[in-house]
Amino acid sequence: MENTRSASLFENAKKVIPGGVNSPVRACRSVGCDPVFITGASGAKLTDADGKEYVDFVGSWGPMILGHSHPEIVKAVQDAAAQGTSFGAPTPTEIELAQMVVEAVPSIEKVRFVNSGTEATMSAVRLARGYTGKKMVVKFDGCYHGHADSFLVKAGSGVITLGIPGSPGVPDDIVKNTLSIPYNDCETLEKTLRDPALDIACVIVEPVAGNMGCVPPKKEFLEDLRRLTGELGIVLIFDEVITGFRLSYGGAQKYYGITPDMTCLGKIVGGGLPVGAYGGKKEIMDCIAPDGPVYQAGTLSGNPLAMAAGIATLKLLQAPGFYEQLEEKAAEYAGRLADISASTGIAVTLNRVGSIMTGFFTENEVVDFESAMTADTNRYGLHYRQMLSKGIYMAPSQFEVAFISAAQSGDDLEKAIKMTEWSFKKMLEK
Ligand code: PMP
């Protein structure tokens, strides 16, 4: 990548932005190369600063389920911008998006919009604590819920990728109120939740884990979570920042038929603009200021551009057969990848739920953080660099998911399959 415009941009970026990036995984360190700088995107394609085009499997880490620069979403944002970009006052559009969310997501009776997934999860946990008057938060190893202090305990995403064991700057006094236990482990779950010494306010879970790579929940895991939290008066929070409007129009809770008490959203609900949302039962949501004593606020919350993008996106997702077609496309793509693994003999454990998937370079079944860690990250790094060189843009870490979008054409996926086959064969030569 020497002598490219991306390389010189990266040098400039590093002088004024820590690590040259505004979010750590973008620096591509775990895949052993420097990042390409993106200047534009349309449909399933990204264009970098050197004019090279890529088929995109990152989709801005999830929001772009309809592809980039969808004309209806762009128009909605332009129309909104022409009316003013922020008022710091209530607007009709935030009611419209809130109504759409309440109709779509089974657990949400009332919803509050914020600006990121991190804000959504942080606020949801504060509210669960305020509502129950209890302290402890239970999360699962390898799940990522944004970068608020109380979640940086055995977290996924960039925290794994960079090998940061939690994070300096997070006081012990705060994380002592967070307990992280293994994903998909029903026995530990029951023992923990029933422990009378723990003052548990809530359990927060990614209903399909997406931040240690894609790890589907065992059926009984979600069922036990619902049954036990219900019985014990613990608030169950689904972090659907990735899965919301992705696995189905009603998210993972509709997909699996398990309704939590609260839900966090982000990514798709903002149509590619900065949005998060948290919602749930009226009785819980009414504890938020100004109706209740639990405080949460935001200068740009419910931003009119973001609301317009969200509304336009959700309307498009209501098209009959949308999720069925996405599932079919993703299933076929995953099947072809599995064939390449079988024919080349390069072991890949392919986990997929709907349009999110991860091919782990391991022979082991991947059901939790520990098994995910058996993946060969050097092999992933090599595969990543080879794919990038051939115009396929994948997540720059083994422990993230690939996102299939409605914009990817048969030709785009065919190209990715051909290049995967080429890359696997090339790895065998080494
Ligand atoms: N929760 C989950 C499940 C996520 O995947 C993410 C981000 N990828 C977040 C929360 C945090 O969202 P944000 O990056 O918008 O703060």
From TrEMBL:
CDD domains: OAT_like. It catalyses: (S)-4-amino-5-oxopentanoate = 5-aminolevulinate. Its cofactor is pyridoxal 5'-phosphate. Keywords: Cytoplasm, Isomerase, Porphyrin biosynthesis, Pyridoxal phosphate. It comes from the Bacteria. Pathway: Porphyrin-containing compound metabolism; protoporphyrin-IX biosynthesis; 5-aminolevulinate from L-glutamyl-tRNA(Glu): step 2/2. InterPro entries: 4pyrrol_synth_GluAld_NH2Trfase, Aminotrans_3, Aminotrans_3_PPA_site, PyrdxlP-dep_Trfase, PyrdxlP-dep_Trfase_major, PyrdxlP-dep_Trfase_small. It is an enzyme of class 5 (isomerase). Homodimer. Belongs to the class-III pyridoxal-phosphate-dependent aminotransferase family. HemL subfamily. This is Glutamate-1-semialdehyde 2,1-aminomutase.
